[in-house]
Amino acid sequence: MRREQDLLTVRAAEGDEEAFETLVHHHAPALLRLATRLLGSRAEAEDAVQESFVSAWRKLPEFRGDARFGTWIHRIVTNRCLNVLRSRRSELGLDAVPEPPAPDHQVSPSRAAEAHAAVADLSRAMEGLSAEQRVCWVLRELDGVSYESIAETVGISPEAVRGRVFRARRYLTEAMAAWR
Question: Which family does the record assign (predicted)?
Answer without folding.
Answer: Belongs to the sigma-70 factor family. ECF subfamily.
